[in-house]
Amino acid sequence: MERTRSAIVRAARDLADTGAEITMPAVAAEARVSEATAYRYFPDLLSLLRAAVMTEDLVAVLRSTTHSDDPVERIGQAAEILGRAVLRRQGAVRVVVASTIAKPSTSKDRPAHRFGLIEHALAPWTNRCGSAQRAGVEQLVRGLALVISAESLFALIDLCGLPPDDAIASLATTARQMTAAAVAATPTRPATG
Predict the structure, then answer these.
(1) What residue intervals traverse the membrane (predicted)?
(2) Contact status, residue 19 vs residue 44, Cβ threshold 8 Å
């Protein structure tokens, strides 16, 4: 049982890594199981993709690559990390985004990687903000969530015609600019060290 489930998950991950179209029949064929067997383990493609490709701990990636407490630098790195993760498994991410748009009730099941990344990137700065600044910090997080996202990356690639690397750079630049403006406008306590 567990071996079959693992084979299905591995097949979905492999297809996602190749950029091939991801469908339940394609995953079943790759896993060498029947489509009915794939559906027995995963009731729909979204649940399979969640298990297969949306599990990477991006905060751990940011933690391992960030050696600064500067929120502007850290948020740029967060945008780049999310952008690269989205591109790596673009086919699967597009399916997840499309299913959320088509069926908004599934949005609660969608991974919220961006919030973990944003909060971790801003943590050294937000820890120095007082309670009077909380509303501004929360607004910045919401604004950054619009920028540091698969949807924004796809808009830059699909609608603006940017090459993927330029699209990621654009996300990072916008995130840095927003963060720099918020940091400049927000009084904080001195860093303790």
Answers:
(1) none
(2) no
